[in-house]
Design a protein that fits this description.
By secondary structure, the protein is of the alpha+beta class. A four-stranded antiparallel β-sheet has the order 8-9-6-12, with helices on one face. Strands 1-5-10 form a three-stranded antiparallel β-sheet, with no helix packed on it. A three-stranded antiparallel β-sheet has the order 4-11-7, with no helix packed on it. Strand 2 and strand 3 form a beta hairpin. The chain is elongated and about 130 Å long. The N and C termini lie far apart (125 Å).
Length: 203
């Protein structure tokens, strides 16, 4: 009899537990799939290159030299076509900087194209300096502008001078969420890292 009571108590307790679980499972409920958020950075690509000009003055010769052009048989006073072309592919609005170095009294740039703006304190009378422009986001490598169109050998040269090597470097950086001063500093650091030799003294 005692065993029977114990068994009945156990069964009753089990029934209470079962009813409790059942009641819990019977509550109204709902769920939804999780929201997944992905983040990725935009990208900027920039390039500069030159094509060998075909409209050369008489006797002057030009050949491709890496991404630039090498001119021979030049004469004092001659104007040479030279068009370093800048192109950009960017997912975001960006600053594009060019840095021109190497020009001196014997070989001058005939003028940086007007779409570029000089960075204060970087330019000289020969055309050397850092210049920039702002470009909008695009979907493919897009021509921005030439750095300049031509250079001229000084008419005071005698032919015994060593004409300078001219360097044109390019750098691009995001426009938003960065100050212009910081963008200029980043460009200057990039150009310094190129370690171009100092301009050749005239003479």
């Amino acid at each position: 009899m005692k065993i029977k009571r114990i068994l009945l108590s156990v069964l009753a307790l089990a029934l209470v537990v079962a009813l409790s679980v059942g009641a819990t499972l019977a509550f109204l409920s709902a769920e939804d799939t999780r929201v997944i958020n992905n983040f990725s950075f935009g990208s900027i690509s920039v390039q500069i290159a030159e094509e060998v000009p075909t409209d050369l003055p008489d006797d002057v010769e030009a050949v491709a030299a890496g991404k630039g052009v090498s001119y021979t048989k030049v004469t004092p006073g001659v104007q040479l076509p030279k068009q370093p072309a800048v192109s950009v592919k960017t997912d975001v609005k960006a600053y594009v900087f060019i840095n021109v170095s190497g020009f001196n009294a014997n070989l001058k740039c005939d003028g940086i194209n007007s779409t570029w703006t000089a960075v204060d304190g970087t330019t000289d009378t020969y055309g050397n300096g850092t210049y920039y422009k702002v470009v909008e986001a695009n979907n493919a490598m897009t021509f921005v502008d030439n750095a300049f169109e031509s250079v001229t050998v000084s008419s005071t040269c005698t032919g015994s001078e060593t004409l300078p090597t001219v360097y044109i470097d390019v750098f691009a950086i995001q426009f938003d969420n960065i100050s212009f001063a910081d963008a200029c500093a980043a460009a200057a650091a990039s150009f310094a890292a190129e370690a171009a030799p100092a301009p050749t003294p005239a003479g």
